[in-house]
Amino acid sequence: MAGRGRPRAFDRDEALGKALGVFWERGYQATSMSDLTAAMGINSPSIYAAYGSKEELFKEAVTLYTATEGRYTRRALDEQPTARAAVTVMLQENAAAYADPATPAGCLTVLAAPIPVRENSSVAAHLARMRAEVRDLIRRRVERGVEDGDVRPDVDAPAIALFYSAVLNGLSIQSRDGVALPGLQQTVAGAMAAWDSLAAPDAPTAPAAEPTGGTFGEPER
Length: 221
Known about the structure:
TetR/AcrR family transcriptional regulator; HTH_TetR; Tet_transcr_reg_TetR-rel_C_sf; about 0% strand; DNA-binding; TetR_C
C-alpha cells in the first residue's frame, strides 16, 4: 500500500522497560547509547526514530518508573486514613522497594542525575521538579490532616513536607550505599518518632522559628 511506513520490528513498550533498567542502574550521564542498544536489542537509528533522543527516552523511562515503582508514594498519601499513617506507609513501602534485590537499589528520580552539569542540566532540572512534586503531595496530605483533625492546626506543613521528603530521598541514597532493609526500617522508625512532637494534635506548640533569609525550600543567598 502506497504511503504506508515500514512497521517497527520491536515492541516499543518492552524496549522502554529495558531502557528504564539501564538508566536506573547506571544513571543518566553514565548510560551510553551502546548500553541502551545492547539492553533494548535495537540499533541507535531505531532508538532515535522511536524516542527522539537519549534525553527524551530517559524522560519516557522516568514516566514509566513513576507509574510503576513510583506508585507507592501516591497510593500511601491517597489511601491512608491519617496523615501520620500516610507518611509512615509511604516511607515503609518505598524503603522495601529500594531494598528489593529484583531491581536496582534506590530511587531513579533521586539517583539518576544528582549533580547538574552542562550535559545533563535539563534532565537534572526535570528530576528536581519531580521531587518537588512529591514534596508538594506530602504538604497537601499534611494540610488535609489539619482539616481532618489528626494534625495540629498550627503545624508548619511545608516544613513537615521538606523534612519527610528529605527522609524519603535519604532512604534511596542509603539503599544505593548498601544499607539493607532492616537499617532502612530503623531510619523510618526514627523519622516517625519525630512526628508526635512535630504534628500530633496534642503536641505542645513549637516556638516560631527565626527567619533564615531566602524563601522556603530555597538556599539562603
